[in-house]
Amino acid sequence: MINDQKNEENIxxxxxxxxxxxxxxxxxxxEGILTKRELVIxxxxxxxxxxxxxxxxxxISEGTVxxxxxxxxxxxxxxxxxxxxxxxxxxxxx
Length: 94
Description:
- The chain is mainly alpha-helical.
- It is built from seven helices and no strands.
- It has one domain (2-93): Arc Repressor Mutant, subunit A (Orthogonal Bundle), CATH 1.10.10.10.
């Protein structure tokens, strides 16, 4: 519980659109498909963050972010950030 509260606080600090972040990270529809790290990256993409910014924020290389974005697309059967955003918002509506 304490870790969840800390994570939620970090999300709210880092993301002005915290309601979206919280819902996306905790979204049961995608938890079984994407890893926790992929969910964080997908959430960042939905919030219109660049690969470069995501890499800096997560302390990983931009190449790693690109590879993980590709893996996310493959797992979800999509090909763009727009499709990812639509998918996330559709999951939130369910």
